[in-house]
Amino acid sequence: MVRAAVLPAVGSPLEITGIDLPAPGPGQVRIKLAAAGVCHSDLSLSDGTMRVPVPAVLGHEGAGTVVSVGEGVTHVAPGAEVVLNWAPSCGSCHACSLGEVWLCANALAGAGNVYAHRASDGSDLHPGLNVAAFAEETVVAANCVLPAPEGVPLIDAALLGCAVLTGYGAVHHSARVRAGETVAVFGVGGVGLATLQAARIAGASKIVAVDVSPEKEGLAREAGATDYLIASDTTAREIRGLTGKQGVDVAVECVGRAVTIRTAWESTRRGGRTTVVGIGGKDQQVTFNALEIFHWGRTLAGCVYGNCDPAADLPVLATHIREGRLNLSSMVTEHITLDDIPTAFDHMRAGKGGRALVIF
Q1: Tens digit of pLDDT for each residue in 97-140?
Q2: Of 211, 153, 197, 203, which is closest to residue 330 (Cα–Cα)?
Q3: Helix, strand and coil percent figures for the chain, each rounded to 5
Q4: Across-strand partners of 18?
Q5: What are φ and ψ of residue 317, in 5° steps?
Q6: Which H or E element spans position 96?
Q7: Which residues contact 245 (CB under 8 A, 6 or more apart)?
Q8: Residue-wise over 67-90: b if at least 16 C-beta within 10 A, else e?
Q9: Which residues pair with 253 in a beta bridge?
Q10: pLDDT, average across residues 221-228
Q11: Using an 8 Å Cβ cutoff, are 6 and 21 in contact?
């Protein structure tokens, strides 16, 4: 039996309880978690913004050590340090055939499986976003496991599984920020902090961070922000004032709210690019008129998992980490235990802090 954070039903509080994991079957891997990040997507699953079968063990950003492997698994062995990949590509759907593995039609197929049972009554449990990282140990499909980069502490490596890939990819793959361009980042949580660092790595000349919390300014500036604004009705105007009345070349929205997406769009120069990373609900409706779309000539793009191929991007990120350009530990504002995850959810709802990291 291992302890895990179970979502019994959409909208219900998490329950920290014992679960029974089976031995890994063919093509599966059992992992002892070292750390797991608490991502806003976990909160979105909890409140129903995103849907997965329940009851489920949440958590999708993690790293750990292989305990055992099932038949046919050859790319990792017991004792190997690994990063969890919550959205593995199938390699055969239409998106994968185009090389767009981040849009794989079958990436979340495993979320509907029964992977474990409650220790108390034997009831079925699903693995959240495939990997069920909010647990002392988990069993995942082999394609959800990637070797941890050499030279990166395993606890830090947990952040690579979602926040860092997403933020880095938003800048380098989706918005394709070029050296000398100006960037605005809306939302200074875990993904926002990774996005700020990625913009700095890309050589952005001005990086404006925007958030509702004055307390996050230090975090934002350490990550690379040259300017910090408190979100308000005048944010777009303030950003234009910081950029010669033009607006930024690139705005990255990491919140998932209609008003923030609209503000990011309005903060972008004529012909600029707005990339939306934040996951909002269906009730968050963003409106544009036909004339402004023509006149401003801006590009508005969604961004899934940073438009990344984790197998290809993790080695690149590892190089940035080893050479001191990317600081993972600076993104973490709380080290917590499994029992503290509900409190971490409350902090996210209140817009507090950067990334909370569960240490096992």
Answers
A1: 999 999 999 999 999 999 999 999 999 999 999 999 999 999 99
A2: 197
A3: 35, 25, 40
A4: 3
A5: -60, -40
A6: helix 94-97
A7: none
A8: bebbeebeebeeebbbbbbbbbbe
A9: 186, 276
A10: 98
A11: no
Q: Which residues of 147-186 are buried (b: 16+ CB within 10 A; e: fewer)?
A: ebbeebebbbbbbbbbbbbbbbbbbbbbbebeeebbbbbb
Distance, CA of 186 to CA of 183 (rounded, Å): 10
In sequence order, what DSSP letters do the residues of 117-145 get, joined into one string? EETTT--EEB-TTTT--SBSEEEEEGGGE
Beta bridge partners of 57: 6
Structure tokens at 64: 């750990």
CA pair distance 100, 272, nearest whole angstrom = 23
Percent of all residues in the chain with a pLDDT value above 90, rounded to a whole number: 96
Q: What angle do CA 64, 129, 149 make, to 5 degrees?
A: 30
pTM of the model: 0.96
Task: Find, among 283, 238, 230, the residue nearest to 256 by Cα.
Answer: 283
Residue with tokens 């940035």: 320
